[in-house]
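Exercise 3.2. Students should predict the tertiary structure of the chain below and write it as structure tokens, then compare their answer with the key that follows.

Predict this chain's 3D structure.
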Amino acid sequence: GFIFGPGDRNTGALLDLLRRGLAPLVGRGGNRLPLTFVRSVADALLAAVQTPGIEGRAYNVARDWPVTQRQFYRQLARAAGLHPLLLPVPYQLLAGAGFAAEAVASKLGGEPAFSRSAAALLGLDSDFPTRRIEEELGWRPALPFEEAVAAAVG
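Answer key:
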């Protein structure tokens, strides 16, 4: 999923785009994002080590809330006091740009500025059920959506 929080590079990169006043939405922006606040991940890890008898069990900690890409961008902008224009860009175009950036970075020996996996993470509909971890470990998202985004923006 997309783990975000204070100081993370991905959220910082999205904020940089929003600050420029024009940010690309991958597709129409109605796709669900697998957003997880960093403190929710920490809480899940603590719950796992404190719960006996769960060895070998797998748990999703990849979605704190059912949030769309557009909702996430808007909440980031609101928390940062910004009013950008959100411009829908076709998924295939950004996936192609990610492929090109990966190829150039490979030739130059660096990290790509954008990747196919980033395009997929932002542009595809993703929903990971968290019922098992909620029922078996009592895990819940650390903060409500608006508060988590505000904490990430700082």
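Discussion points: The mean pLDDT is 93. The CA atoms of residues 72 and 146 lie 9 Å apart.
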